């Protein structure tokens, strides 16, 4: 991949499809905790096209912009008149390393500055995992910049206690949230490498067995290059990035409820107000009581973020999702890994285009 990496990310070898050729861009965060850090993003538009709308893909944890490659490629292949912007958050992908325990509100602030730098308007916002609160949170003071929303296994609402929960999934004795505490930082990239394999229905023993094997391979440097597992894991080879990523995992049981913790560099961090504002403003601005923006959703059901009660929260906030909600019982958390073309079609529909 012919990207000249301008950051201190541990990820130095990239697959050819990490971003569209010539679309690699770099942004220096101007202020806040990450002032001076370098953030990577790709910025693509078909040649000779003046797009009316911009697709903004926002990733979560422990992934990076590469998680959207299938949906992005489907849009590129169809040559629809859309600008496509896809950033890596600080601490992920090939952006600069994190130097404190970052959570959604910190990434949202950095994304807000990128949005303002590029003056993105008429945005089709695509969100997955922690990218939900990051993406929605970035627009809290400028909700009118968004013209459409595509939701992929994420939430900004208090995680319901029924069914799958992150303090009991996939196994109550050792749930996903506990791994942020028990796996050493030096092996955390191996857990990231295993998430794609462990995200679909499978026996619990197989899920944890795969995770253990990936951690061993990561420690030995034997995860194949040019694979999603390598991309996700190698950016977490630094202990600084691993520590920040693990903080997100530790908070999954209280996803959407708001939480507080103490960072050793910046002291007490509290995002309760961040969530309250999103939960009030999203339905008021984007729901039927507001602009009623077009919206679609794709949920892998084998996941706490894909269960019926979470989908109902989204439907309450955005009733227009009722006719554009796609549910896949055979898919887990990383729905974009398996349903890229379907997601691309939803993006086109939300944008008012035919693929």
Give a verbal description of the structure.
With 355 residues, the protein is of the alpha/beta class. The protein has a domain of 226 residues: Alpha/Beta hydrolase fold, catalytic domain (Rossmann fold, 3-Layer(aba) Sandwich), CATH 3.40.50. It has eleven helices and ten strands. The strands form two sheets. It has an eight-stranded mixed β-sheet with strand order 1-2-4-3-5-6-9-10, sandwiched between helices. A two-stranded antiparallel ribbon has the order 7-8. A hairpin with a 3-residue loop joins strand 7 and strand 8. The longest helix has 16 residues. It is globular. The protein starts with 23 loop residues before the first strand and ends in a 5-residue tail after the last helix. The model has no long low-confidence stretch (mean pLDDT 94).
In short:
The protein is α/β, with parallel strands linked by helices. It has a domain of 226 residues: Alpha/Beta hydrolase fold, catalytic domain (Rossmann fold, 3-Layer(aba) Sandwich).
Mean pLDDT: 94
CATH architecture annotation of the domain at 24-165 and 267-350: 3-Layer(aba) Sandwich
Q: Percentage of helical residues?
A: 25-40%
Summarize the biggest pleated sheet.
Answer: 8 strands, mixed
* Count of alpha and pi helical runs: 11
Q: What proportion of the residues form beta strands (DSSP E)?
A: 15-25%
CATH topology of the domain at 24-165 and 267-350: Rossmann fold
Kindly report how far apart the N and C termini lie.
28 Å
- Outline the low-pLDDT stretches: none
Shape: globular
Strand count? 10
CATH homologous superfamily name of the domain at 24-165 and 267-350?
Alpha/Beta hydrolase fold, catalytic domain
Structural class: alpha/beta
CATH class of the domain at 24-165 and 267-350: Alpha Beta
Order of helices and strands: EEEHEHEHEHHHHHEEHEHEH
- Strand order within the widest sheet? 1-2-4-3-5-6-9-10
**Cα-based radius of gyration, to the nearest Å:** 19 Å
InterPro entries: AB_hydrolase_1, AB_hydrolase_fold, AB_hydrolase_sf, Epox_hydrolase-like
Domain AB hydrolase-1: 54-161
GO molecular function: hydrolase activity
Keywords: Hydrolase
